[in-house]
Amino acid sequence: MKGFTLLCSAALLLSAASATKLNVPRLRLSYKDLLSTNRSSIFSGHHGQLSLSAVFLDEYRDRLFLGGKDILYSLLLGPTSSESKEIYWPPLPGNREDCIQTGKDPQTECANFVRLLQPYNRTHLLACGTGAFQPMCAFISVGHRGEHVFTMDPLNVESGRGKVPHDPSFPFASAFSGGELYTGLTADFLGRDSVIFRSMGGRSTMRTETDQKLLHDPKFIAAHLIPDNDDRDNDKVYFFFTEKATEAGDREGSIHTRVGRVCANDVGGQRVLVNKWSTFIKARLVCSVPGPHGIDTHFNQLEDVFLLRTKDERNPDVYAIFSTISNVFQGFAVCVYRMADIREAFNGPFAHKEGPDYQWGAYEGRVPYPRPGVCPSKITNQPGREFGSTKDFPDSVLQFARSHPLMWRPVFPALRQPVLVKANIPYKLKQIVVDRVEAEDGHYDVMFIGTDSGTVLKVIALQGGNSLEMEVVTLEELQVFKVPTPITSMEISVKRQAVFVGSPAGVAQVKLHRCETYGKACAECCLARDPYCAWDGSSCSRYTPNSKRRFRRQDIRHGNPVLQCVDQSPEDLDVTEDKVVYGTENNSTFLECVPRSPQATVTWLVQRDDRKDEVKLDDRVMSTDQGLLFRRLFRHDEGVYICRSREHGFTQVLGRITLEVLQGETVDELMARDNAGLSDSFKDRAALGQSRTWFKDIMQLIGPSNLPHVEEYCERMWCNDKLRRKHKSMLEKYRQAQESARKARSKNSGERNRTPRDLSAWEE
Ligand SMILES: *[C@@H]1O[C@H](CO)[C@@H](O)[C@H](O)[C@H]1NC(C)=O
Ligand SMILES: *[C@@H]1O[C@H](CO)[C@@H](O)[C@H](O)[C@H]1NC(C)=O
Ligand SMILES: *[C@@H]1O[C@H](CO)[C@@H](O)[C@H](O)[C@H]1NC(C)=O
Ligand SMILES: *[C@@H]1O[C@H](CO)[C@@H](O)[C@H](O)[C@H]1NC(C)=O
């Protein structure tokens, strides 16, 4: 039954996702495109594979610090310079060998994988690495702002136990504040002791008790200090993690995502919970979509968290990527949480279970004072009730805290639904950063989402006018890394308008926007719907609010160029090119027309005499993603074909192609003339002939149905691998032939319009 429900909701999600062309990115930029337009630059270390495992972006010093396998880098982020310095940092002598002896892998485990890079004081960073399963930390001198110092005293190394995990592959989260380090990790060799730690600084080390009620196989994703109000005594450190959900009861292996927190001024209890957290509480983070029969589909596994900080430092927006853990289908969602909702859950009832045979419910008894989860502060430290420190808390409070760490009410996302859902996609969503961008009509949160295949999606989610339905617009899909590789870290720099994208292969610095890419016309700029960009009267350029420029055209919400660009000179929209294509009677012919945006739909008109009609499509005349295909050309097909794209209510003429149909005798005559060797090389002609043959073969395979791609047809027919390979190689040959035909044509372009010799014009 459960499986059935999942399947149903999966189907629902799938149909929702495929129903619209809008899930297709408006612009796809390849690795080459990004490099050639200076949109992206890559650093991949000086010694082959960098095995990047830690990143710290230092906006104050204009430096990017990287940690990898036995290595640390410092990159200067000057406007021109890209100077780098490195520190070789292997495990301590003997540790690599010891690690190998315990049966660990010499390459992927028995090295010093740097997991932590945090600013420590005005001149030093704190760096910690796995040290071949012997965690270690060191201070790195990075100098003051303006100088490029990067040194480490190899003798001044201390134990990193409790600061980073032993195993380089284990999840881990940390936050550094007030000279103290907060970590969520497994702190032992075997990776079983899951714990939230506080270390360094003057106070004694704090940790969670070993108790599955508190933490049950947690996978830590992020940790952040977030103040509650102006009283610093109320500062709290929040941990975001996924763990086994005890309260889910009978459902074996079910997991929930949590937000947990401790008070920064927690020093543990006096008699109970000595040096253990006395303020730790946690609540569930829900991210789900409604399914059929009122059963929601839950995204339970947390993948990444980004805190979108605003002027109000107490109330950042929490963006989180989730995935499903179902075997039935793989889906991803982005949910956004407000701090107010998180605090409300923590102020609500505690979850309670009377005994093994009871149901979980809200605790309805008397909660001791000070309420567990509340930090000792001026409020709790009143005459007669002097609780100035957690050491003053009564034992009853500590006992209650220990037995009731979970809140009863979960935290729901803003608007009670994800801002983005993706299912049935050939990649995974891994990392997220968000930029709040000022636009003409308000601000937009632009999400940059890193996938496991080396791409970054730039996405905005718009809430529909009066409906709750979200409209998700994928503005760009950027292939940041040359080969598919999982993106493991992302840092955004609003200051330099760039995002730093990390993968095992290296780090890419990618600009947040490049408005020129969208095109040279007002309409194209407007259709892009990119909050960073606007039409300034002559080009698509960066939109800057408060600028004196009078002329700014932008329409993110509707992308309606008809309204925005109506007074723009018509030449702006005229991206047409007039062409002539020759086809032979009874043979096939192709009129090419590909819109810049994959979201646009194309219609074809044909002009004969003074009439313009829409082209009638059937088995013989087919509209494909690449253009108009005549499987058999008739004499009456002659005419001027107009390719029109339509996107968001805006229509644009992309091309005008005059089709001339050659009849038998003319063709024979031409062939004869050609064969006499009047001009062309034999080779070029052979290429033309060959391409025609392949094309016909492909057409035979496709058959009469109106399907754009051989591949797609193949999938539909469940054809076997062998056949698919055959089609693939055929397509490849077809493309090669097309290429040589193009070369041949350009060689003869001079006489192209006079002599109808280009018989194989389908790739024009
Ligand atoms: C990219 O940067 C290089 C060096 O700064 C410059 O010469 C080149 O013109 C730039 N290319 C583009 C497309 O902006
Ligand atoms: C920063 O910390 C390092 C390591 O403890 C210490 O050597 C250095 O003097 C400190 N610098 C400042 C400016 O406090
Ligand atoms: C297609 O054109 C070629 C070359 O002109 C000719 O040999 C062939 O018979 C034509 N095919 C049809 C179906 O007319
Ligand atoms: C095309 O086919 C028609 C009917 O089959 C035939 O009458 C005509 O001669 C053919 N033309 C050429 C050039 O093959």
From TrEMBL:
- Record domain Sema: where: 26-512
Start and end residues of each stretch annotated as Disordered: 730-764
Q: Where is the signal peptide?
A: 1-19
Residue ranges annotated as compositionally biased, kind Basic and acidic residues, are 730-757
- A GO CC annotation given for this chain: extracellular region
Q: Name one Pfam family in it.
A: ig
**Which CDD domains does this UniProt record tie to the protein?**
Ig_Sema3 (cd05871)
Q: What is its main location?
A: secreted
Q: Which InterPro entries match?
A: Ig-like_dom (IPR007110), Ig-like_dom_sf (IPR036179), Ig-like_fold (IPR013783), Ig_sub (IPR003599), Immunoglobulin_dom (IPR013151), PSI (IPR016201), Semap_dom (IPR001627), Semap_dom_sf (IPR036352)
- List UniProt keywords, sorted A-Z: Differentiation, Disulfide bond, Glycoprotein, Immunoglobulin domain, Neurogenesis, Secreted, Signal
GO molecular-function terms, A-Z: chemorepellent activity; semaphorin receptor binding
Cellular compartments annotated: Secreted
Ig-like domain: residues covered: 570-660
GO terms for biological process, alphabetical? axon guidance; circulatory system development; neural crest cell migration; positive regulation of cell migration; semaphorin-plexin signaling pathway; tube development
Q: Which family does it belong to?
A: Belongs to the semaphorin family.
Query: What's the protein called, per UniProt?
Result: Sema domain, immunoglobulin domain (Ig), short basic domain, secreted, (semaphorin) 3bl
Source species of the chain = Salarias fasciatus
Tell me the lineage of the source organism: Eukaryota, Metazoa, Chordata, Craniata, Vertebrata
Gene name of the encoded protein:
sema3bl
